[in-house]
Amino acid sequence: MFGPAGRIYVYMIYGMHHCLNLVTAGQGEGEAVLIRAVEPLSANELNHQNTSGPGKLCRALRITKQLNGMKLGRVAGLWVEDRGLSIKPKNIGVSARRGVAYAGKCAKYPWRFFIKSSDFVS
Hints:
Elements: E1 8-13, E2 17-23, E3 32-34, H1 48-51, H2 54-60, E4 92-95, E5 112-115
Antiparallel strand pairs: 1-2, 2-3, 4-5
C-alpha cells in the first residue's frame, strides 16, 4: 500500500480471505482504495453471491497475494477501464466503513461509496 500509485495491494484478513486494494498515492504515502465488490457488465458466471464482498470477490476472480505489488495492467491481468458510464451524484451512496469496528472513531468516517441501486453492494 506504500508503493507508487497504480499498483495492486493484496493482503489476507482473518487468515482466510484476500482483499484487493488499488494504490492511489505516491511512494511511501499509504493510500489505497479497497475494492469491496464488482458488478459484471455482461452475463457470465459472476453473480451477487460471489462478488458482493472483498473476500468473495477475490475468490471469484482468483486474486491472490501473487498480484501484490504488481502494476495494474494486462501483465497482471487486472486493470481499470472507463466505459463511459455516467452515474448521477444523487445515485451514489456514502456511509461509514463496514467490518472495522476495531478501528475506533475512524471506523465512523464516511469513507465507503457505492451505487445505491446496485444489487452487488457489499
